[in-house]
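Page 37, continued from 36.
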C-alpha cells in the first residue's frame, strides 16, 4: 500500500517508524520542524497524547 504521495514516503516507512520509533512519529506529527527546518508537512501541535497514541496504534494495525 502506498501511503503519502505528497510526502513520497510509502506507508510501510511510516508504519515501521510507528512500530519501532513511536516517539519519533509523535514528535514529527506534532511539529516536523523538530527534525528539519524545511519540512513541508504541517505541524499538529493541537493533537493530545491520547490522539497521537491512537493514531500510532491505527497505523500499526494497518501495517501490511
Ligand atoms: C495522520 C497524519 C500523518 C502522519 C501520521 C504523518 C507522518 C509522517 C512521518 C512519520 C513523516 C516522516 C517520514 C520519514 O521520516 O521518512 C512524514 C513526512 C511527511 N509528511 Fe506526513 N504525516 C501525516 C499527515 C500529513 C499530511 C496531511 C501531509 C500533507 C498534506 C503530510 C506531508 C508530509 C511531507 C511532505 C513529508 C516529508 C517531509 C517533510 O517535508 O515534512 N503529512 N509524515
Amino acid at each position: 500500500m502506498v501511503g503519502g504521495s505528497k510526502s513520497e514516503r510509502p506507508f510501510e516507512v511510516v508504519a515501521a517508524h510507528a512500530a519501532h520509533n513511536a516517539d519519533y512519529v509523535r514528535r514529527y506529527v506534532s511539529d516536523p520542524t523538530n527534525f528539519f527546518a524545511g519540512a513541508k508537512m504541517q505541524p499538529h501541535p493541537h493533537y493530545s497524547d491520547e490522539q497521537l497514541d491512537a493514531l500510532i496504534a491505527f497505523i500499526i494495525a494497518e501495517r501490511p
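The chain has one domain: 11-61. Flag for discussion at group meeting. The pocket of protoporphyrin IX containing FE is lined by residues 4, 6-7, 9, 13-14, 17, 25, 28-29, 32, 39-41, 55 (CB under 6 Å).
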